[in-house]
């Protein structure tokens, strides 16, 4: 039960931070998304994001900041294996399933729903 609580608190805190950035600092959702992906990569590079995921579970692994952490992990794993070329290919290897799923589901949704305007 405690794990659910911390997942809710951490995930909710990330969402509250995003809403504050939009409301108070007048950032666009695209700026907030980019900031969160960058922050996830930075925290992953410092070794702080994986302990956060272990602590908060889905509260840290579901928000977009986790995508930045995954991008960095893929790049670093492939860098160790293939050098600088691996930095470019690693981000595609580790994130390709999620990106592909997003594209496929967006396409299916576009076939089912028609936008207004």
UniProtKB/TrEMBL annotation:
<feature type="transmembrane region" description="Helical">
    <location>
        <begin position="32"/>
        <end position="49"/>
    </location>
</feature>
<keyword id="KW-1133">Transmembrane helix</keyword>
<dbReference type="InterPro" id="IPR005562">
    <property type="entry name" value="SpoVA"/>
</dbReference>
<keyword id="KW-0472">Membrane</keyword>
<feature type="transmembrane region" description="Helical">
    <location>
        <begin position="6"/>
        <end position="25"/>
    </location>
</feature>
<keyword id="KW-0812">Transmembrane</keyword>
<feature type="transmembrane region" description="Helical">
    <location>
        <begin position="84"/>
        <end position="113"/>
    </location>
</feature>
<dbReference type="Pfam" id="PF03862">
    <property type="entry name" value="SpoVAC_SpoVAEB"/>
</dbReference>
<protein>
    <submittedName>
        <fullName>Stage V sporulation protein AE</fullName>
    </submittedName>
</protein>
<dbReference type="InterPro" id="IPR014204">
    <property type="entry name" value="Spore_V_AE"/>
</dbReference>
């Amino acid at each position: 039960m405690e794990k659910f609580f911390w997942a809710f608190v951490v995930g909710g805190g990330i969402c509250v931070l995003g809403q504050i950035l939009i409301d108070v600092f007048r950032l666009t959702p695209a700026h907030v998304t980019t900031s969160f992906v960058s922050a996830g990569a930075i925290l992953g590079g410092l070794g702080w994001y994986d302990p956060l995921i272990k602590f908060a579970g889905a509260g840290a692994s579901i928000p977009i900041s986790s995508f930045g952490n995954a991008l960095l992990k893929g790049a670093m794993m492939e860098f160790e294996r293939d050098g600088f070329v691996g930095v470019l290919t690693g981000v595609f290897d580790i994130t390709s399933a999620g990106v592909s799923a997003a594209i496929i589901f967006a396409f299916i949704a576009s076939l089912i729903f028609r936008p207004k305007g």
